[in-house]
Amino acid sequence: MQFKGAFSALVTPFRNGEIDEEAFRAFIEWQIEQGIDGLVPCGTTGESATLTHAEHGRVIKICVDQVKGRVPVLAGSGSNNTLEAIELTRYAKEAGADGALLITPYYNKPTPAGLVAHFKAIATEVSIPIVVYNVPGRTALNVQPATLKAIKDAVPEVVGVKEATGNLKQVSEMIELCGEDFCMLSGDDFTVLPLLALGGCGVISVVSNVMPAAMSGMCKAFAEGDIATARKLHYHMAPLCRALFSETNPIPVKTAVSMMGMCTEEFRLPLVPMQPDTRAALEKVMLESGVLNTEELAEATA
Length: 302
Hints:
Layout: E1 5-9, E2 14-15, E3 18-19, H1 21-33, E4 38-40, H2 53-67, E5 74-76, H3 82-95, E6 99-103, H4 112-125, E7 130-134, H5 136-139, H6 145-154, E8 158-163, H7 168-178, E9 183-186, H8 192-198, E10 202-205, H9 212-223, H10 227-244, H11 251-259, H12 276-289, H13 294-301
Parallel strand pairs: 1-4, 1-10, 5-6, 6-7, 7-8, 8-9, 9-10
Antiparallel strand pairs: 2-3
Helix pairs in contact: 1-2, 2-3, 3-4, 4-6, 6-7, 9-10, 10-12, 11-12
Binding site for pyruvate: 45, 204
Pfam families: DHDPS
Subunit structure: Homotetramer; dimer of dimers.
């Protein structure tokens, strides 16, 4: 299976309104050193909604170039406009990405037949492994298990789904209908371990921006049958999971990465910095979790 284990949905570092290539390359290198299984540039966590098309292509190119084939790169390239999604997916393929992560069209609320037609149109124009991204909290549309099977059957390029409903009943039905060879990736850091138990193959994670070794380690431990270690890592990450979703993603995770000195605490509107109380709570959890020490924090905030 091509997309297996822990994939980090990477933050996109900015500096003075521009992509901070140096920080991005260093962050990617650190992720690989920490044992991450794959990387996802230009996802929701990467603030893709506010990247220009040129920036979108550049971020993917930087990631592919820095990775140099050491781990798979699954590039975000979705849109609610099918023609735009084709263009962004073409950028991803030309940049050398191993696959494309395509969100279901948001706002439009297409019918099941429209979803099948959307993914089929993209794959017809750009043949690349595709992972469907189902996140009703952002799209106002939930891909039902039968619809996912219809997409899979109609579009051979669709090899998996990033399931971000947190609904394990739905996950189970999707795996039942689509088969164990279909890659079920969690899009919800809170439910990775139970999703793996149902037959999932991994996660596209926010938390692994900060704890790549722990998230990757949990997936590996489960795959090796070491359930006790997997459970221990699940609970070790739980406080950070809660803190990183105390405000809209990716505000807390980019703040956390900046506390670690790996990027500036810079967002694009309409996202703004964390509120003082939630920021303080995040800082406390990071110190207690051991991913940050007081010296690093002082240096990063100096």
